[in-house]
Amino acid sequence: MTKWRRNCWLMNDRLLSLLGLARRAGRLSLGNDPVLSSMEEGKAKLVLVCPDLSQRTLKGIESCAEAFGVPLVTIEQTMDQVSMSLGKRCGVLALNDEGFARKALTLTKTNGEDLII
């Protein structure tokens, strides 16, 4: 895939575009340790994990999200797609803004009735 086609495909993915906007706004935590510290400080409103994340990391993130009462959603984009879009390879993301978190929930096609932010 050429660089132009890859960038065009990424621009059409609305969730990745939203994550890029949140990163530029400073409302996105990328990686395991920043997400954990964001949850401990009470900043994280929504945690997103990629489907190809290791089971050990997923188990740790799930337990912390449950302990701190932060909703956790598995997105359909892989770590490679997220890294091409955001410029950093990571499988765990935390949105630290309620507006971005609400929009991400609608874009992930998750039924928002059971997740209240």
TrEMBL record:
One GO term describing the cellular component: ribosome
Location of the Ribosomal protein eL8/eL30/eS12/Gadd45 domain: 15-92
Stored Gene3D superfamilies: 3.30.1330.30
UniProtKB keywords: Ribonucleoprotein, Ribosomal protein
Keyword flag Ribonucleoprotein: yes
Signal sequence region: none
Keyword Heme: no
Name of the protein described by the UniProt record: 50S ribosomal protein L7ae
Annotated organism of origin: [Clostridium] leptum
